[in-house]
Design brief:
Layout lengths: L3 E4 L8 H13 L8 H4 L7 H11 L6 H15 L9 H10 L3 E5 L4 H10 L8 E3 L12 H10 L6 E5 L2 H9 L3 E4 L15 E2 L8 H10 L1
Amino acid sequence: MIKAIVCDFDGLIIDTEFVLYEAFCELLKINPSKLPIEEYAHYIGTDSNALYNFIMNKTNGAMTKEEIIKKSHILHKEKLEFPIPRDGVEDYLKEAKSRGLKIGLASSSNREWVTYFLEKINLLEYFDVIQTRDDVENVKPDPTLYKNVINLLGIEPYEAIAFEDSVNGTKAAIAAGLNCVIVPNKVTENLEFKTFHLRLNSMKEKQLFKVIEIIEAL
């Protein structure tokens, strides 16, 4: 029996990932064709160091990693001045609450980033437990974030559904023993997801109770 849902944040609740991609293109002053999204997508959903190293290589030494981090963060936040949740996200959270399900969040981003935007879109109050990179030594695809959330919620992994948009996040959820529903975004939709339980184009595609029925029937 499903007792909880656990959401990723970046790219799942808000499509921050495509906005960051646009910020990098602007920062590097290049056409998106020079920064193939298929290549960029492999760095999504895990430690940002690998992503910043990738971007730094694209500058041919014109910028240091510190400059890239600082300037891209400013641009990224500017572009997210008026964030909106992805389709169906708030409906899922409302339905989960109405059904008495516990709600957790597992993100490889830092807590300040996550809570800032959750407050901005008025969704912070829905979450019973939040675990971020500040709470673990290793982020996704390491399963610790999900394991922490499950322990804090006081349930078994198989009693939860994780909602993920990235390959690394999906690997983490599966490794932690959760059921996993993938909802890829514009950055991750062409990646190869090898192991998951259900794929949605958006949360508008199926109501939460339908998703739960499908997962419980597996």
